[in-house]
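Translate sequence into structure tokens.
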Amino acid sequence: MADTTIADEATEAEAGAAGVDHGHDDHGGHGGSHGSTTGISNNKLMMWVFLGSECLLFGALISTYILYKERFVNNTNGNNPLGLENPIGPPEIFDIPFTSASSFILLCSSLTMVLALSAIQRADYYRFKVWTISTASLGSVFIAGQIYEFTEFYEKGLGYTTNIFGSAFYTLTGFHGVHVSVGIVMLLMLLVMHNQGRLNSDKAETVEIVGLYWHFVDIVWILIFTIVYLFPQ
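Result follows.
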């Protein structure tokens, strides 16, 4: 009778241990990533926090641009009281059709990013590579267009130190361009990791996190394009 009781207690202890381990796996989340009290992984939570800080940063840059643009426009009407050698500024400096095409290209990259994530979640690695390369290529075309645009503006007389509008404009749009360039590097790193066998369907969350950053950059550009190019006055 005693042996039976000891055996029953041992069985219950093993079942309890299994339950604890199972609960630990559930808490770990998909793909073995560590979860947080928010219900998402720590890595994804960190990216959301980072993007929140980026919102504050871009908000400050956009506010600064609006402030200096209004001062520039108001002070160059009439007699040019600032005494600027070259009072060039919005909207005569902009090539709206060219920038609109460049913006459309960048927005298309959000679609290819979604397709890349969907492909790796399905373990369709060929399409994952195709769509990731497409995303990086579209981003590169956007950066090339921005460099061309900056070159044209400089040749027309608008440099970084030409006037307060030029300083605010180049700081805002250039800072966004740096973010796009960082996103391109991140996309290329995904391809390298996949080729090394360190990124497969069980770690698709890594691609999702990079996608969050990329979509954020695209959304910020929509705001910048609207404020800077579509409503220059």
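Note: The radius of gyration is 26 Å.
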